[in-house]
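re: that chain from earlier
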Amino acid sequence: MKLSRILVFLVTAAALAHGDAAAKLQVVSTLEDFASLAQTIGGDQVETFALARGYQDPHYVDAKPSFILKLSKADLLIVAGLELEIGYLPPLTDQSRNARIHPGGPGYLDASVGAQGASGPSASVVLGPKSALAHPCGQPVRRHTTCLRATAAPPSWALST
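^ sequence. v structure.
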């Protein structure tokens, strides 16, 4: 609920500040969910683009040169945060040469601000096929799943079939 209010405010404020009535507000997001929210809120006033598609693993997005062009023209960049995009987004934003969408800029929205992960940085070592590097700031909250932390021995319930 808080995130949607923030998105409504930012998309509306950016659209008003954009000035040119004929030009649409260019919104780039790292996930399709955020692009969908921005499109729903902004309607025909915005044009959205998601860097990661729904079928892709958001931890490992293949950076494409076309992303740099999209980012260079973006008025607003919406990121999931918690360093989910740490592996591919910083070089793209640097190469875009768009100061508005850099962290701290007026067009940068980190959706994780104010949110806490299910665990802190010390729990970033998890068992899984892609290791712990995916969540250096801790695991995000997940529903209907269990996060197994690396321990000396797995819990007894994990061994039962």
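The CA atoms of residues 105 and 135 lie 24 Å apart.
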